[in-house]
Write a structure and sequence with these properties.
Rossmann fold; ten-stranded mixed β-sheet; globular; single chain
Length: 382
Amino acid sequence: MKPGSPTSRNARRPREASGAAGTAEARSRDRPDAGARPRYWIREVALALLVAALGWTHPLRPVPVPAARAEEPANVRVAPVTDGPAGVPAISMTPAAVEGKGGTTHKLWVPTGVESEGRPNVWVHVPARFDPARSEVRLVVIFRGHSNCIDSYVSPTGLPCVNGREARTGYDVARQVERSGTRSIVILPELAFDVKSSDAGPLATGGFRAFLRDVLRELAPVVGDHAIGDVQGITIVASSGGYEAALPILQSTRLPIDELVLFDSLYVDNATFSRFVVGHEEAFLPGARAPRRLVLLYCKAQRSQSEVFGRRVEVAILGRSPAAGREAVRFEPRPGVPEMDDLRASVAIHNVALEHDEVVARYLWQVLHVAEEAREARDATP
């Protein structure tokens, strides 16, 4: 058949044919006639044999994917953040934008973390201001709430932890860390995965020290060799149901936990939280040699127990030193939206007129910022 004839292939598939009718008509005209079928069949068989011999995969045929094995996954280290919009670290299924220059995000698996079925079980951000030349390190450990996972929690707006389920909450953690100016390494352990629990597994049964040791070991190529003895201070952040993980760690560990942050997380007025202050009142007063900080930001649902806790803490510190205690404690039970200055007290307890999920999104970076400011001011004091 001549290419220019009316029944050539181009003529049989006119460009103007469109829509379902045009497509069906074009397809029906495209089918080989009865006389051409044997030759068409032979061509297909020959092509299939060639594909099989060369090991190719047909572009429309699904490629088999090996099942994930429940063993140590390769630890993922994300490239440093760079200037401009291109500097976005792939911290999860959807990258999170990070302000400024520097800072690296790492998704790791450590054997002392929560069983994760082959997934990474800890997320770490080493901020731009971290100084590897210093012999000491400081850590911030964030325990997330229920029905979430580290991939979603650190993402800008939240992701489904499991394909097909609804997106969970996300707080753009890397960006907030960089915005805060902190020099602390920020660690987010995986907890019970996407269920109504914040069970920390082995971390809550005496394994927290070993977990941090393994994380520091994995980070050695980035932050240098550091042992647990190099950790000069730890901030524990409990977000919502994360109190379930924080409580047993506060009860059992002998590590230098000197800052406790509860983001609408006082579901239970537990004596362990009170003991962080009661018996250590002098550590919250101005000029303390081994200072501590406590931040509690609560919404209306946790108002009752949070106010009882706030009064108890306030009475304990004012009882130690009325004048210095008034400077150290800022307890505001009336609903409002605290400014950064309201968070600078050693004890900052505020009734926040925001929705539950807005607290971390608004205040994580601010809490880290004022804590870093206070440490730098102490370091600068002769």
